[in-house]
Amino acid sequence: MFLFDSCIAFLLMYLPEPVVTVIDTVVKILVLTVPLLISVAMLTLFERKVIAAMQLRKGPNVVGFWGLLQPFADGLKLFLKETIIPSRASKVIFILAPMVTFSLALLGWAVIPLSETFVIADINVGILYLFAISSLGVYGIIMAGWASNSKYAFLGAIRSSAQMVSYEVSIGFVIITVLLYTGSLNLGEIVRAQAGGMHHWFAFNIFSGNFPLFPMFVVFFISALAETNRHPFDLPEAEAELVAGYNIEYSSMTFALFFLGEYANMILMSGMTSILFLGGWHAPADIAIFTMIPGVIWFLLKIAFCLFVFIWARATLPRYRYDQLMRLGWKIFLPLSLIWVVLTSAYVVFFKGAI
Q: How far apart are the C-alpha atoms of 271 and 306, rounded to whole Å?
């Protein structure tokens, strides 16, 4: 990060400020997007390896050393396959749907602060931007189900959109509890409010004498599983009733975009979890052996841990019935998160909620 700032300072000496601003933004986008796309591909391998280890198998181990090139082989296979569009499908919307899903998963990273100094857009309403981007993901799925002109795809899309909308309500209230603590919608300020060690992170703030947000951390993470249609909430893709859900008519690269969009959303929700509850780029303790490690490394390690739990849940938990899924969202998470908003508000008003 220091080298990056030095290069920008050097360019300012010879180029007009607007040009440097554009170059700065473009370079930041490339620095963030290229590793992110590679990470999305490698996450598929990581998932298959972790599940294989939990089931006492080896997983992919043929293409490349330890199977490291398997994601690229899968991508090449999908790229070379023929894109089949159903004859009665709405062709433009059919092709646009996976592009919308994948693009939204990348756009969310515009406001994610990877460290104290590195963020593409440090806006004061960053958390609202993220909430809006995650909510818009419903449109890509609805477009895919409707444009396919298939009752199975359409039913899968309706299931998925109902599920995502249901759990977005709980996520919204969870975010409000965090905002009440910090008094800011800026993601950087939310992370800075958790400085000082693990006991100041909002997931564990009860150890610093504050009103506990650990229940909201649990609600947020489980809701993230449902929001990304991951196990045990992958009802839209329940093979027994709907074959493969909203993307049943998709093949080749259009299917790959849905697939990559799901994994990119997993990484984005893990990043949100790290920022809101796990201290973002902050080290677990203010001791030399931890603080000498760059903040971006701590942030990436926290994302990796959240992704591991995503995969762990898939490998161990049975799939929910649809009525169980809706009951959990509307009858348990919604009342619990609403009550916690009231209690947190009371704590902040009467006890000042000093962080």
A: 8
Residue-averaged pLDDT of the chain: 83
In terms of phi and psi (left: phi > 0; alpha: psi -120 to 50; beta: otherwise), the region of 292 is alpha
Asked if residues 49 and 59 have their Cβ atoms less than 8 Å apart, the reply is: yes
Buried b (16+ CB within 10 A) or exposed e, 27-44: ebeeebeeebeebbbbbb
The residue whose two tokens read 């990484």 is: 267
Nearest to 156 by CA among 53, 250, 283: 250
Write out the E strands in the chain. none
Q: What span, in angstroms and rounded, lies between the C-alpha atoms of 171 and 278? A: 16
Hey, what are 227's tokens? 């929001």
- Number of residues in the chain: 355
- pTM comes to 0.86
pLDDT digit string, tens, across residues 150-189: 888 888 888 888 888 888 888 889 999 988 888 888 888 8
What DSSP designation does 287 have?
S
